[in-house]
Amino acid sequence: MHCGCVFASQTVSSLLPFEIKTYASKLRASSAQLPRTQIQINPSDDLSIYGSDKSPANRVSLPSHVNSITSTTNPFVKHCLKLRQSSSYRHAHGSVLVVGTIPIREVCMFQTNKQGMTTEIECLLLHEEAKIPQGLESLSIRIVRVSSLVMKKLSGVQSTESVEAIALMRIPSSFTDLKDDKDIITDCNKWFPSAHRVLVLDSIQDPGNLGTLVRSAMAFNWDGAFLLPGCCDPYNDKALRASRGASFQLPIVSGNWNHLKLLENEFQMKLLAGHPATTTQKLKPVSKLSVEFAQSLAEKPLCLILGSEGNGLSEQARKVCVLVSIPMAGDFESLNVSVAGGIFLYMLQNLV
To answer: Which residue range or ranges hold the tRNA/rRNA methyltransferase SpoU type domain (predicted)?
Structure first.
């Protein structure tokens, strides 16, 4: 799902202290002074320049003495902005911006209470006049105060009155990116803790829809989401806002049809796909979603596949899945995919 170009980067000297200069200046680090290895930031880079390794050696941090940022041209601000704007850059660094106090708190509370571990927040950017958000006071977090202009630039919203905090977080280990068929040999039992109910998204391109579907899957006790090629990044800023932190809670796998086939065979899953009852192509019968239909599948592991906003299900999905429609009054052909998905997810939720 994610692609990126890798370019050679200059070796970072471990003998020099940090110096922050102008737009094209170099950022160098002393490994003896900072807890993480630092790398040079080149704000003009368009895609990932640091490779796909998500190890600490590829992380970007501020000098330890910096506790406030007022300029939008600061190299670290440019780095954070690229994390918000570029999928390849995000995944190359393994970092993502989470905007807003509520989703930040939800992610932290879930991972601390449910998983027994603390969320790795690399940096918490707070508006210069904001208090530390309730629920985060006890966490050991590096806090950097930023101006209204910086907060507006990084948040991507016109009004920053309701945005007091932005967290630079690590992409969770619950996300798995199966880049190609070489990963077909991987153990699919590791993708999801359980695979009784898996939501499969087929070329969902709208971040708001994808985030809403991930949130609904989490709410209705589904075990994970599988993203087929053509889906947008679940860590896109709009998808994160729509998911309200669910993208950090629900296991998500990005793969292709071969990977999905492996999952199907391993867990003997039934493949269902949401599809309008009224269609010009009567290739196969379309079942109606009902309480009785849902109850008949209660103990059966299943994947629910939802198609793209514009084109619906792919030909592959229509071919291999049992097609199911939502009964509707009137002459409506279909619902918005996030609305239809919410109905399917509720009716077919995991009750085992």
So the answer is: 198-346
Q: Would you state the pLDDT for residue 43? A: 36
Q: How confident is the model at residue 124 (pLDDT cuts 50, 70, 90)?
A: very high
DSSP state of 339: H
Alpha-carbon distances, residue 323 vs 166, 318, 326, 330 (angstroms): 42, 7, 10, 21
User: Nearest 5°: phi and psi at 122?
Assistant: -75, -35
Do 5 and 48 form a contact (C-beta atoms < 8 A)? yes
Both structure tokens of 290: 């009902």
**Whole-structure pTM value:** 0.79
Count Cβ atoms within 10 A of the Cβ of residue 51 and give its class: 0-12 exposed, 13-18 middle, 19 or more buried. middle
All domains of the chain in start order, with CATH? 1-171 (3.30.1330.30), 175-347 (3.40.1280.10)
Q: Taking 50 as the threshold, does the pLDDT of residue 249 lie above it?
A: yes
Q: In 10 A of CB 236, how many CB atoms? A: 22
- HSE, CB side, 13 Å, CA atoms: give it for residue 259: 25
DSSP state of 46: -
Q: Directed axis angle between helix 337-347 and helix 207-219, to 10°?
A: 10
| pLDDT confidence of residue 33 | 33
Q: Are 136 and 142 in contact (CB under 8 A)?
A: no
Q: Is the pLDDT of residue 21 over 80?
A: no
Nearest to 217 by CA among 71, 333, 338, 56: 338
Place of tokens 């094209």: 24
Q: Residue 314 corresponds to which tokens in the numbers above?
A: 């792919």
Window from 171-175, 320-324, 333-337 with minimum mean pLDDT? 333-337
φ, ψ dihedrals at 41, nearest 5°: -105, 125
Which strands form 270-274's sheet, in the order they lie side by side?
175-177, 252-254, 224-227, 197-201, 302-306, 270-274, 322-325, 286-288
